[in-house]
Design a protein that fits this description.
73% helix; 150 residues; flat; 6 helices; mainly alpha
Length: 150
């Protein structure tokens, strides 16, 4: 896109000093108007630019922001990139549709073993309760009935 030139250590220091001074002013007013807790939060925010400068992450953040901006600009202005976005969308739609088709065409194992088109006939229960298909569930229901829980 465009090259703004390199930023030297003095420029980073001036930027950091400016941000820290603005944060310090904010911290003072926050302490005076809203109390100690707001002043401490302001001090915490004020120290972040200085910490970012000393750990060289301020440069990293600007490089990341520059890379994201370059990517976004190339996304907006490049028909090839838009073709890639369209193909990614088509791919997602194909995955979803194929999953829906697979779910409709392959019935579950329990239904396949049943009679005819209706599937497996459920055994009738005495009190209008839902019928149990699993032995483990039958054991759990028996324990619940013994304790008076229905």
């Amino acid at each position: 896109m465009w090259e703004s030139g390199s930023v030297d250590d003095v420029a980073w220091g001036v930027l950091t000093l400016g941000l820290t001074m603005l944060g310090g002013i904010y911290t003072w007013f926050a302490y005076q108007r809203r109390g100690l807790a707001a002043g401490m939060r302001g001090a915490a925010i004020t120290l972040l630019p200085l910490a970012a400068y000393l750990t060289k992450t301020l440069k990293m953040f600007t490089r990341i922001a520059d890379a994201v901006a370059d990517w976004a600009a190339s996304l907006v202005f490049s028909p090839v990139v838009w073709l890639g976005v369209v193909l990614a969308g088509v791919s997602v739609v194909l995955f979803v549709v194929s999953g829906m088709i697979a779910a409709r065409s392959a019935p579950p194992e329990k239904v396949r073993k049943g009679k005819g088109k209706r599937g497996k006939e459920l055994p009738k229960s005495g009190r209008g309760e839902p019928a149990v298909l699993d032995d483990d569930m039958a054991d759990i229901e028996a324990i619940l009935r013994d304790r008076g829980i229905t």
